[in-house]
Specification:
Number of helices: 13
Structural class: alpha/beta
Largest sheet: 9 strands, mixed
Number of domains: 1
Strand content: 15-25%
Shape: globular
Distance between the termini: 36 Å
Helix content: 25-40%
CATH topology: Rossmann fold
Oligomer: single chain
Number of strands: 9
Strand order of the largest sheet: 1-2-4-3-5-6-7-8-9
Low-confidence stretches: 280-289
CATH superfamily: Alpha/Beta hydrolase fold, catalytic domain
CATH architecture: 3-Layer(aba) Sandwich
Length: about 290
């Protein structure tokens, strides 16, 4: 593949906005945001990575890009979300990349590492545990209570009506820095964007995902988790390592859920540790951040 500088890419009639920066021929890091953010939540992380000589690709994902907001719930199946990321790599002329994901972006990162490991040089996941670890934690901890909001988000229209006028305030109470909370609140106030983001929750469990090669991740992986995370608890975080057979690091931070925004220097350091030489990642049950 020949590297190509892009500002957007298209797939199945949808057009996704992308921030592509750093040396074109450098190792590439893909940065996948979560709910209710966008690609700019990684801006401070990306700047550090670019300064270290890496190329970064940060897309506004399905439902967030104005040109990629299908209305049907089935258009947000996990398989579609994974194929969007692969289309991004193809459009940018990148055969293999280091994949970083936070929140929902982290969930897609885990799934891609299982279904398409040949496209990845390594994985850094922020906050979100391995999907199988999360499921196990539902019956062995208080995670089910922590995840109750995901059931509420299945309802049509009501979550949008409740969240839109108070989203920034909710995010501040959850520990997101005020500037980012205000930016996300304004972003999601635009017509259709909040529904697009919530449709990720509404697509949970729908069939159509690529068949994984097993539940184990076979690429070098670092998992960063904040012990002040209100949504994702310790049990799932500690179980995650049992689903990675490659070199693995678990980094526990004294932070909350919003790691890219609130701890960009620590996040960038972890990515650089791995993306510049994935073979250096050493297995560890716990590493302090």
């Amino acid at each position: 593949m020949q590297p190509q500088r892009i500002e957007s890419f298209s797939r199945s009639g949808l057009t996704f906005d992308v921030t592509d920066a750093g040396p074109l021929d450098a190792p590439t890091v893909v940065l996948l945001h979560g709910f209710p953010g966008n690609r700019h939540g990684f801006d401070r992380v990306a700047a550090i990575l670019q300064g270290a000589g890496l190329r970064t690709l940060a897309p506004d994902q399905r439902g967030y890009s104005d040109g990629a907001r299908p209305r049907r719930r089935r258009d947000y199946r996990a398989g579609e979300l994974q194929r969007d990321v692969l289309a991004l790599l193809d459009a940018a002329g990148v055969e293999r990349a280091h994949l970083v994901g936070h929140d929902w972006g982290g969930a897609i990162a885990w799934l891609l590492a299982m279904s398409a490991p040949g496209r990845l040089t390594g994985l850094t996941v922020l906050s979100t545990p391995h999907p199988a670890a999360l499921v196990r934690s539902l019956v062995s901890s208080a995670q089910l209570l922590r995840s109750f909001y995901m059931l509420v988000f299945q309802l049509p229209r009501l979550p949008e009506r409740l969240l839109r006028p108070r989203l920034a305030a909710v995010l501040r109470r959850m520990g997101l820095d005020p500037d980012s909370a205000a930016a996300y609140g304004a972003f999601m106030a635009e017509p259709g964007r909040l529904t697009g983001g919530l449709n990720w929750y509404r697509g949970i469990g729908l069939p159509g995902a690529p068949e994984p090669r097993g539940r184990s991740v076979t690429v070098p992986t670092t998992y960063l988790w904040g012990n002040g995370d209100q949504a994702l608890g310790r049990r799932a975080a500690e179980l995650t390592g049992s689903y990675v057979t490659a070199p693995y690091r678990f980094v526990e931070l004294d932070e909350n859920h919003w790691l890219p925004e609130n701890a960009p220097t620590v996040v960038a350091a972890a990515i650089l540790h791995d993306a510049t030489d994935p073979g250096r990642v050493q297995g560890s049950p716990r590493a302090s951040g």
